[in-house]
Structures are given as C-alpha cells and as structure tokens.
Design brief:
It comes from Methanocorpusculum petauri. This is Phospholipase D-like domain-containing protein. Keywords: Hydrolase, Lipid degradation, Lipid metabolism, Membrane, Transmembrane, Transmembrane helix. Helices cover about 25% and strands about 30% of the residues. By secondary structure, the chain is an alpha+beta fold. The chain has a 16-stranded mixed sheet that branches. α3 runs parallel beside α4 and α4 runs parallel beside α5. The radius of gyration is 28 Å and the shape is globular. The relative contact order is 0.10.
C-alpha cells in the first residue's frame, strides 16, 4: 500500500502543471503602426511551450507542438509592422506577414484593445496569470508596460526608450563648478584636453567660443559626435544652426533627435546636458552650451551647477546612454545650411565669487530620465537632517494634479527636517496664476498652517546672476544632485535627462556655500515670513542687545 501511495505522489509531481515556468512580463497593446500591427506581448520563461495559451476572451494564441524556448519570447500581431517600428523582427507573429517570422497558432479574433481589455495566460486550461487595463496599468499610444516582481512597473515606458539601471561608481576625482563664476573655465578645459573623442548630448548649443574649442578638437583628429534636440521649444534658432553648420564644416558628426508626422520621438525632449571626453571624463551640467549658461570668464550669466567627473566607469555608463540614444529610429543626420557662426556675446562684467573646487574619491550615481529619475524622490524621502533645493521652476502635473516631488519635500518638512526651496523670480516667473511666485507663497502658507519646517523664496535678477536655471539639490550635507531635470511632469517621466548624485560631504559644503550666498545675497527676495529657519546671527544680535541693556542698568544703579 505504501508503495502505491509513493508512486501516486511521484506521478502527481511529474504531471502537475509547471505554472511558474512562464509569465507575461511585457505588453504594448497600442502601437504606432497603422492598425496596431506592431502590438505585442513578451512571454518569459524556460521549457516546453506545449499547453500554454494566451487569451483575450475573443481569441487565443498558442504555439506549434514541440516548441521550446528559453528567456524572452516576443509575440507580435504582425511581424512586418513590428519591424517597421522596432527595427527588429519578433520571435512569433499572430497574423502571417513575413516568411522569416514563425507563425503562432490562433483561434477567434485575437487583438488587444487600446484602452480597455484583459489577458489571461493559461497552462492546460488552468489560469496562471490574469491582468486587465486600465485597472492594472494606464494604457497609451506607444506605451510599454512591464511586469516585475509581481507588479506592473509604474514607470511610463515608450517604444524605443532605454532601460538603464542604477549604478554607483567611485570617481578618482570630481571638479565642481558653478555658472556664472567658473563654468567656462572647466568646460573649455575638458574640451581642450580631449585626446581621442568627444560625445556631446545637448538640448541647445549656441555658444560660439565653445564651438571653436570643439572645432579645434576635431582639427586635432578628436572624433566629435554631437546629438542635439531637433525641435526645442520655439524651434531651432539661427544661432544654433550657425554653430552646427560651423562644426559640420570642422568635421564633427552631428545628429538630431526629433518626431515626424508619422512617428513621435522616443522622448518628448532631449533635454540632457552632458559631454564625455575620451574614456575617463564626464561633464554633467544644469546649463546648455549657450553664452548665458556657460558665460565667458568674469561675465554675468545664469546660476547653474556642474561637475567634471574623472571616472572610467561613469564615462562608460554615459557613453552607453549616448550610444543608445544615437541608434534610435528618431535620429537624423544634421543637414547644414548657410547660417554663420554667431558673434561673441557677453553680459556685464562681474566679480568671480566661486572658483572650481576638486574633491577626491567620490561616490557617483548617474541619473538618467526617465530610466532612473526615481532616485531623486527616493533621496528626498531618505533625508534625515536638511534639504536645500534650488530649481528654475516647479509646476503642477496635468489635470491640476499636485507635483508629487514637491509633496514629498513638504512631507519631509512635516517630519521636522528643515527645508529651503529657491526658485527663479525673473525668467520663469511670468504672469501666470500658477508659476513660481504662487508656488513660493503656497509653500510658505502651508509651512505656517501645518507647522512644517520649510521656507521658500524667489531669486531675482541682479548684477551677478541673470536668472536661476539650476536643477540642484543638497541633502543632509552629504548628497548633491547636479542635473538637467526640471520639476515638472514631463522632465522625469518623458524627457531624456541626465545628472549625477554625489555622495561626498566636501561637495555638499561647496554647493551649500553657494546656496547660502544666493539665499541671503539678494535684498529683493520675497520675505520668508514665519519660516522656522533659525538664523544664528539674529540670536547673536539679540544677545548683544540684552547684554548692553544689562550693562546700562548696572551703570544706572551706580
């Protein structure tokens, strides 16, 4: 009897469904091709595909008998349509369109609806996985949804976007700098010292002097490749066309990333501002290559932060990002015109206050939007001592929704952690009822009403700074964010952005000194009101006054 029981147990184990062998890990129900022929899903797992079926309730898809697989299997509605968008063919197609793509077997009418549908994965008719949209994820044209660790990813993927993961490197050294004081000095030096290659990813490039430095590098047989946004806000200026024409003549390879009438670009904007020199140096900036962003030495310009990171690991990481961006379907060689290189332009002379500063053995974590921009709110959530945020602007989300990053900042202040928020009071403060001055007033109102340890102010144009264009963050006097990421909805979610997080107290001290100067240095700023920031100078003055009163009283008694 015991032998029979043992045999039954063994038999049950060998024929029981291996329901964990396969899962649907990615799906795109609303593609770009006409008729959604490029819609697809990915089945991930290993082993025989016999007995596995995918159904949407109106039709079902299965595989030819004896089929086995390992890893990810892409099943598209039409292989030819999928290829027209992705540049590669799927592993299987449901409707036969190309002889080199194996056909999946289907019954009924299997077509995933764009806005609302449900999918069930079955093994020998037993459900293994079920999901639906919009319940489990929010669909959209060109959106890809990924299933990881039992949940659908909150990140908004679009067709063709990269999928870089967070990594941290130890840089041998990092040279810190700021605009307007010392940015040109560092940027020009990195370009001038390049020996083999320059890879530049830039939203806008109109700086004639930096163009001349790049052209000089090309004349030294440095391989120069430039990727720029082909459709910046307001269109590409004649000054930028002049720079690109000049660099093309100098031998640089120049490409634009842009949408067409038939196919949107992978990213809403290429808004990154970085440069890779050779195999070891990466420049990360909040500023574009413009005369106001990288002012000539000793002249007024934007307030922005930057760093030259000397690390082969960081350079390789950003070079992989650059290569991924350069190989997309939305990349076009720049066609030069006749616009000339723009004339030199500079603002009024200033006194340089903050020279570059080099720190050593620094932990550096690259930030790439939209891939790893979630590291920024995580940095805010983990704050334990203080946060200083300097940003060009903060805006609400579509449909009147709150900016969730700003909400996190206020929640952090609600935990008793001092928060200071500084926004531009000139260029990015228009006549709108929901721009910077309203944001600042609202932060201070909420801080007073809800007893939150926070204060906000505007930075106005002065003799030293034309506008605040920074996108920087200092947390706990230990972490510094230098980036191109604006605090709106699209920048972290839909744009290509670039930045770094430095874990280094000396770096935090450098930028904190600059932040403190900007916070106190402008007499035209908004009053902080009832903000709870404690100013030791006020305490010292009060103590001196009290001491003088005591001395006066003692003298009277005599």
């Amino acid at each position: 009897m015991r032998v029979w029981i043992l045999l039954c147990i063994i038999l049950c184990i060998t024929v029981a469904p291996a329901s964990a062998d396969y899962l649907i890990t990615e799906i795109c129900p609303d593609g770009y091709a006409k008729g959604d022929g490029d819609e697809y899903f990915v089945l991930s797992g290993t082993g025989s595909l016999d007995g596995w079926t995918i159904t949407d309730g109106e039709g079902s898809v299965r595989f030819p008998p004896g089929t086995t697989a390992s890893g990810d299997i892409i099943i598209a509605r039409e292989g030819t349509a999928y290829h027209s968008i992705h540049g590669t063919y799927p592993d299987y197609e449901i409707y036969s369109t190309h002889p080199s793509v194996p056909d999946a077997l289907f019954t009924g009418r299997f077509q995933m609806a764009n806005t609302k549908d449900d999918i069930t994965l079955l093994y020998h008719d037993s459900p293994v996985q079920s999901f639906s949209w919009p319940e489990d994820f929010t669909p959209g044209n060109g959106r890809i949804h990924r299933y990881t660790d039992g949940i659908w990813d909150e990140r908004i993927y679009k067709i063709g976007q990269s999928r870089f993961s967070p990594e941290t490197f130890t840089a041998e050294s990092v040279t810190l700098f700021v605009s307007p004081d010392s940015s040109f000095e560092v940027v020009d030096s990195v370009i001038t010292n390049a020996r083999s290659r320059l890879c530049i990813s830039m939203y806008e490039f109109t700086h004639p002097e930096l163009a001349e430095s790049v052209a000089d590098a090309a004349s030294r047989e440095v391989a120069v490749t430039l990727l720029v946004e082909g459709g910046p806000v307001g269109g590409m200026s004649s000054e930028e066309k002049g720079v690109l024409n000049y660099l093309t003549d100098a031998g640089a390879a120049i490409y634009t990333i842009e949408s067409t009438d038939k196919l949107p670009a992978r990213y809403r904007y290429l808004h990154a501002k970085y440069l890779i020199a050779d195999e070891e140096t990466t420049l990360i900036l909040s500023e574009n290559f413009k005369p106001t962003g990288i002012p000539l030495p000793g002249t007024r310009g934007n307030r922005g932060w930057g760093a030259a990171v000397h690390s082969a690991g960081v350079a390789e990481y950003f070079h992989e990002v650059f290569t991924a961006d350069l190989t997309g379907y939305d990349i076009y060689p720049y066609v030069p015109g006749t616009e000339p290189l723009p004339d030199t332009w500079k603002d009024k002379d200033i006194t340089v206050r903050f020279p570059p500063h080099t720190v050593y053995n620094v932990a550096v974590t690259p930030i790439v939007s939209p891939d790893t921009s979630a590291l920024i709110p995580r940095l805010i959530q983990n704050a334990r001592e203080k946060i200083d945020l300097q940003q060009a602007y903060i805006s609400g989300y579509p449909g009147g929704a709150h900016n969730i990053w700003l909400d996190l900042v206020l929640e952090t202040g609600g935990r008793g952690i001092p928060i200071r928020v500084m926004l531009d009071g000139m260029y990015y403060n228009t006549e709108s009822d929901a721009d910077n001055d309203e944001i600042v007033a609202n932060i201070n109102r909420i801080a007073k009403k809800d007893n939150i340890y926070a204060a906000a102010e505007l930075k106005f144009q002065d003799e030293y700074i034309t506008k605040l264009h920074n996108k920087g963050l200092i947390v706990d006097m230990k972490y510094v964010l230098i980036s191109s990421v604006n605090w709106n909805y699209n920048s972290p979610n839909n744009n290509r952005e670039a930045g770094i997080i430095l874990e280094n107290e000396e770096s935090a001290e450098y930028f904190s000194e600059i932040f403190q100067y900007d916070w106190n240095g402008d007499p035209g700023k908004l009053e902080i009101g009832d903000a709870k920031q404690i100013d030791l100078r006020h305490i010292l003055v009060a103590a001196i006054l009290v001491l003088l009163v005591i001395i006066w009283q003692l003298k009277r008694r005599r």
